[in-house]
Predict the 3D structure of the following.
Amino acid sequence: MKTTIFPTLIICTAIFLLSSCMDQDSFTLQKSVFIEDVENPGLPEYSEWGYNTFGTYIDRIPFTSTDTVLPVKIIVNTDTMNIILKGIISNKPATLKFSFLGYPIANYSTLKTLNEAVLDMSNNKCIVSLTRNNITEKLNIIEGSFTIKRAQDLYIDKQYTKTILSGVFNFKTFFSGEPVAVSNGRFDLGIGYDNFYNY
């Protein structure tokens, strides 16, 4: 009697665990995995696994994604691609928005055409703004670049799910007339149906 109950219990438990994992696959893809960079405290490590994180220093203060707010949205209007990063600075919500003119990306599957793209931020084809304390400030960029080191497709069970964009960014700007460096920027973000818009 005991010998048949025990194997049956193990099989039932295994089936339950496998079905739970399968149901949560799509949810898990939306979560953020923050692994701190030892050399740059407060920022996530650079990765290309679709960890849904980003981070940068704004004058040595970390601005990073959180596990409670969708870290990125890409909104395309005609030929302008807007990359919107939402996170926190000093435990307060903030949004950094990059608008790149001349990138009429049709849908999230075509984002892979940006693989190894280096986007110059110092020309008039790039507009950057920072929102914090409910105030949006358009930033005057002195110099900088936004590099998409890798754009790759993510498949789950042989089905295309989203595009992962991974890369780095740095730029210099002004806050209240004073020069400020935004440095060590990095991102590893999954873009799919829930956070890509073209209208």
Observations:
- Residues 25 and 156 are 9 Å apart (CA to CA).
- DSSP finds one helix and twelve strands in the chain.
- Confidence is low (pLDDT under 50) at residues 7-27.
- The first helix runs from residue 2 to 30.
